[in-house]
Write a structure and sequence with these properties.
The complex is a heterodimer of chains A (332) and B (326).
Chain A lengths: L3 E4 H15 L3 E5 L18 H9 E3 L4 H13 L3 E6 L9 H7 L16 E6 L14 H5 L5 E3 L4 H13 L4 E6 L6 E4 L10 E4 L4 E5 L1 H18 L3 E5 L2 E3 L3 H11 L2 E8 L4 H13 L8 E5 L8 H7 L3 H11 L1 H4 L1
Parallel strand pairs in A: 2-3, 2-4, 4-5, 5-7, 6-7, 10-11, 10-13, 13-14
Antiparallel strand pairs in A: 1-8, 6-12, 9-11
Chain B lengths: L5 H20 L1 H6 L14 H9 L6 E3 L5 H7 L3 H8 L32 H16 L5 E6 L6 H13 L3 E7 L2 E2 L2 E2 H4 L6 H5 L5 E5 L3 H16 L5 E6 L17 H8 L3 H11 L5 H24 L20
Parallel strand pairs in B: 1-2, 2-3, 3-7, 6-7
Antiparallel strand pairs in B: 4-5
Classes of the chains: A alpha/beta (332), B alpha/beta (326).
Chain lengths: 332, 326
Amino acid sequence: MTTKNLTTWRALNTALKDILQETPESLVMGEDITTWGTGGGIYGVTRKLFDEFGAERVRDTPISEEVLISTAVGAAMRGSRPILEIMYSDFTLLGFDGIINQAAKSRYMFGGQFDCPLVIRTNGGSGVGKAGQHSQSLETLFAHIPGLEVAVPATPADAYGLLRTAERSSNPTIFLEHKNLYYDKGAVDFEPVPFGRARVAREGTDLTVVATQQMLTRSLAAAERLQAEHGINAEVIDPRTLYPFDMETVLGSVRKTRHLMVAHEAVRDYGWGAEVSSSVVEQAWEELDAPPVRLGSARTPIPYSEPLESAVVPGVDEILTAMRKVRTAIAA
Amino acid sequence: MQEFDQRRQGLSGLKTMAMIRAFESRMPVLSEERLIRGSTHPSAGMEAVATGVSLALGPQDSIASNHRGHAHCLARGSDPGRTMAEILGRRDGYGGGKGGSMHIGVAELGILGTNGIVGAGIGLATGAALAAQMQGSDAVSVVYFGDGAANQGVLAEALNLAAIWKLPVLFVCENNHYAQSASIEEMIAQPDLKQRGLAYGVPSVDVDGMSLGDTFTAAAEGVERARSGSGPTLIIADTYRYLGHMAGDTEIYRNQVEVEQWQAKDPIARLVSQLLEAGVITTSDWEDIQEEASRVVQEAEEFARNSPFPDASDATQDVYSKGVPA
């Protein structure tokens, strides 16, 4: 297929259509995925799938997250390949038993007898004023759990490619979209993107920045200013999946730049950035010229009002400041 | 619909129930001997439910069980030796010792696991029914849960989902009157549990869970409804567990008189007298059945005791499918 310029939601919509076409065991289910005004789902990701594939394979559901998640797990253990949309990642919390106690352990506890080819698509993140219960970044919770794979696409191409890979996995996958990136456009080549392989979004020599989703976009903007205003050339890496995680690419970059910063929208404290920083310190202490810096959201719920929301989630300015801080040891 | 035939289901059920009783009777002993770690929940007294339901199922069907699940597995056809080996944490257990009593799964028998989370099997069986419906097979699924799990919200969600999608699932509530130590009288204001199914448009019946014939007949009706595409059934089986919730239970929440009253309705003794009366078995046949049950369980126990412990290196296997680092 030729490359097309698509929005993220359209790339995801295309991926779902291709999956439903190619995989007879697949089904798509979720709340308001057929009759909402977008044509499918709150952000349009399931648009027109119902028209093409029918009520058997594209299922509108009651608002029952707990049973939807555990039902998807049971179906996956019996040979179906469900792709469940949970409208906002905040709502997955109603079904954590299904995710953590059931799906994540279904292979292990029974000695490898069961596959669990389940994808839970959902969206997290702030930026559009959805406040405390529709804007959280919960990726760390999922990445912490053995048995889950966790994808965090930032670009339309990765959204398409990672969803194709998620669907082919025999493991339960948490597929975290970002609600403020659905309308970003980019070139999509319609190729699967392997899990555990980071993408170098910007090459640089002086500082390694590991960032996902909205923090990636902002880090790239900050990196341009860092270069223009301070002459520091940052390398920006998008891990694309938090588990499996491509530590090799991060370590290779740090060996080159000798400086590390991690930026995520999840709350900084106990976030995955701490895991990455700590792993780099353990594995490449000698290669670092300065302590790594973590950047994440403040330890608050996401507030509603715009100035409050901007105050707790790192913006380009805060990222730029943090980038300079990492380089203070030699640049200040 | 399958009719209860004393010569077929009656006799075969008796053998299964005698074996389950013998198996469960070893649990306190093995716990005492410290061969069982953690929690193990025997179901002596409740054999007729698992056995009656299992007799109504076919090989294509699946079950989701709970923390008190040995009987569900054995009645479904799990090998007593491998089941016991799992309970003892040995290499020959169905999960190679990774699961134990609360996580016995057997993929080839459609056993989606005993489960450590009260009520969790409800969603899993609903999902298995969804898979069967999607695959166009006539398979049905069963979830066994207790009166305690009836208070989990997922039951309400599952009854509704199964009803609107006409999923081929049997919700089998084993009401043994105690959620661990909490009595149903204290925890449920409306003791007529079948109302919970009726409220969601699910055909719901009460059944004497101490009667093999009654549980079989109710299950067979539910299975037929499910296979014919008419959707779910809720069965409330009235039953009782003779032993404590788990090894070490001091049972201060109930008295011996109550236990004895239920033991007087023992499902095995009752079935034996029915079969004797009907001339299906003789006293000597019953002795043989008991002897055979003891022999099977003794062999299972020997197998389990002799099975080696897993290698420590197994601990990191099977977290993910091959190719994903753990």
